[in-house]
Amino acid sequence: MATKSSSAAAAGGKRKAFGKHNEDGRTKAVKTTSGKKHIKAEAEDNESSDESSDAEFHTGETTTSTPNESGNGSNETKSGTSSREAHAKQKQLAQERKNAKPLADEVHRTKKLWEKLRRKSHVPKEERQQLVEELFTIITGRIKDFVLKHDAVRAVQTAVKYATPVQRRQIAKELQGTYAQLAESRYAKFLIGKLLVQNDKEIRDIIVPEFYGKVRKLINHAEGSWILDDVYRGVATKEQKANLLREWYGPEFALFRQPKGTEVTGDLSKILADEPSKRTTAMKYLFDMANGLIQKKMTGFTMLHDALLQYFLNLNPESEEFKEFFETIKEDETGDLLKNMAFTKSGARLVCLLLAHGTAKDRKQLLKAYKDTYQLMSGDNHAHAIILAAYDLLDDTVLTSKTIFSEILGKNEEKDAEHVIFLANDLNARTTVLYLFEGMSKALFPASHATDLEILKEIHEIRTKTSKKDAEVRRKELVTAMSPQLLAAIASSPADLVATSFGCQFVTDVLLSATGDKKTALEAIASTAGGDPNAEAPKDAYQALPPHISTTIHGGRMFKTLIAGGRFDKATGSIQKVDPPLNFADLLYPVIKDHIVQWATGPSSWTVLAMLEASDFSSKKELLKTLKSNKKALIKAATEAPASKKEEMEEKPKAKKGKNASAPKGNQGSKLLLEKLDA
Description:
Elements lengths: L1 H10 L18 E2 L5 E2 L7 H14 L23 H18 L3 H14 L7 H15 L3 H5 L4 H11 L2 H10 L4 H5 L5 H8 L4 H7 L7 H5 L4 H11 L3 H9 L4 H5 L12 H7 L4 H17 L6 H12 L6 H11 L5 H7 L2 H13 L2 H9 L5 H5 L5 H10 L3 H12 L7 H10 L5 H8 L11 H17 L4 H22 L1 H4 L3 H13 L5 H9 L25 H12 L1 E4 L4 E4 L6 H9 L3 H6 L3 H9 L6 H10 L1 H9 L3 H9 L16 H11 L1
Antiparallel strand pairs: 1-2, 3-4
Organism: Neurospora hispaniola
GO biological process, one term: regulation of translation
GO molecular function: mRNA binding
């Protein structure tokens, strides 16, 4: 053995033999050069086995067995059983263990039914109803046992999907008392969503109260947190939301509920106004709970954003708590917290308030988190308000134009027009451009955007203490920075922009209020009026022609405003013209000259009237002459309803006496044109 040891030591890095010997002369499985395992046959005697072993040890070679040694060429175990038989036996044992589990047969049957039901297009309606009925006979009374099994819970979800309202309520009642447990399950949590997505008030009132008292536990759970937040955000009533949010203010709010019949509020300021002594403990508990989620990078919850807003609104801007909170938000290195907050109502408002209270350095740092996100934010229901706040708060307008304008207007000249068309027509995105031109007008901020106006009023009050630059100077600088790209987009894609009502409003605002050379853009808009207003597509055409711009209300309104050269001011009762003047009438008239009679007698007759009233229109005499020679057409249009309206009147039953009965007939614009001719 000493010789063997010295030889092994001398071999150094040589590999050792894989075969290992037992006392009875058998070897364990050895790994062949092909990667397969074989069983070495029993040696005829111990002496020959030892010799081969010594040879392997010294040379490092691997001993293999040929297929012929095993008789039929298949692998064998020590007991002489083939690997295939051993695998079959293992599979059988696994199946026996599975069958020994509770409800094994029922689970197996539900899985078979689920396999059929999930292929909706392959199962006729009548057969599906039968399968659902059979599924309910199996799971009724035992749903709690099924929902915690990862494979069986899918069958229950399918049952909920195809169930009747009564059957769904039956399932919801049977699961009472387990919803908090289900929310923590990796698979069963989806069943809660299936039950709530049907918008059944009875089911909602069964499920939501089961989360009371468990908010702190669930919001920190990897699975339960998302279900809790989904319930809070999309399903819970105002009162239920208040009950869930109150649990962020201390354990006593989780243990004790408000008496029935009393108003429940989640507004922390109201709670502290009634009980000032709870301020210290409630604020500390709220901050610790929120900060715990922030540190764990669990920042996407609407409930968290609501809680953070409540905390911020009850801070004194001069206090240490305020500074600590501000630093907590800024210390989020990845920016995930700020990005997530931008897309919720409370989160967006909180970011706007942080921008308003912060210094110039703070604002720059906060907005840095939104790099490469501004375009997405511009079209969001809530996030666009942060862009509006940035316009009103950042004194460095060069920074604003570089960080925000470059993203929302586009960096690629070829695609700039696409970005602008989106901005012009999207209900939210349009505010991020037109706010600088129209301000807080009702035309730009309808009732659906009332929250935007509230936030803007709030930050305007705060910025008097935190911003130095005059608001009007800031606005003009931003308009100057934005104008070149907007005018270029109008010049390159006029037809796409004037095709919609929002697009026409966008074009009007930009051409009236933008700075720089507008001639190319004005000519492009005038070119969209070309062609015969009454033209029809050929009978063999693939699709109908789009309506001519003169036949649209928004198109006529746009042309009328541009010809007037400004907007009507109610205070002075006159048109406030822009400087330099647009002189749009002189650009439009050559384009529509050949079809001016159709314009004068059609829906856009007001456009022709605006030309006659424009002081800077150079072809007024020529236009009057053309109209006088076609006076009969004007009289007919002024006294008779258009053919399209006649058909509508014939199809509709006779209107009752009232406003509609006394409504004037004929084209009112044509009537006023006749008055101009007779004057």
